[in-house]
């Protein structure tokens, strides 16, 4: 018989003062149910950590980089399931019910479907393709709120501490352990990046970077191009 679900939600943040209160308030029901929420701050200078402390179980300080931060959060976690949540992403109302169902399975890990917050019809199409791609390949991205059993995460040595594609890299290794447990209820992720840089430009950029990553180009060179594109957009 599987152990009851004990969840640790791990949120990597940097300069998220504008959004962190809303993000953590939305997770109040998770904490009231006896699970923990861990915020991992990479030295924000805008008061993010101070705003987070009253609304989470602990704030962990770490070096910069999403992979570095998520590994630091996992090291501090007590739950038997780790859920990695972006600061601009909201879990669906039935998330805990879905995660409890996951805990009763033999799957090592899983992810949610995703929906973009913007109202443009194109955003619904983008999300549909993201979800279908994930179903076909088993690979997911951080926007889909990946969750994994802690013992499996530790056995795989966690996220590879690279500057980009750390989510895809871990998903590849997790697929060698089991297929993901796919939750059809959608997390909602902020569409501001898509709106700021334009949806078609963002699609082209991300697919181009993923294609080059799959062909073996280093995450470091891809990260430099990503940052250059974002800054000039």
Automatic annotation (TrEMBL):
Keyword Chaperone in record: no
Ranges of residues in domain Glycosyltransferase 2-like: 8-154
Presence of the UniProt keyword DNA damage in the record: no
Subcellular localization(s) per the UniProt record: Cell membrane
Record's keyword terms, sorted: Cell membrane, Glycosyltransferase, Membrane, Transferase
Source organism, top-level taxon: Bacteria
InterPro entries, per database record: Glyco_trans_2-like, Nucleotide-diphossugar_trans, Trfase_2_rSAM/seldom_assoc
Region forming the signal peptide: none
Major subcellular site: membrane
TM region positions: none
Name used for this protein in its record: TIGR04283 family arsenosugar biosynthesis glycosyltransferase
Species this chain originates from: Marinobacter suaedae
Lineage, uppermost ranks: Bacteria, Pseudomonadati, Pseudomonadota, Gammaproteobacteria, Pseudomonadales
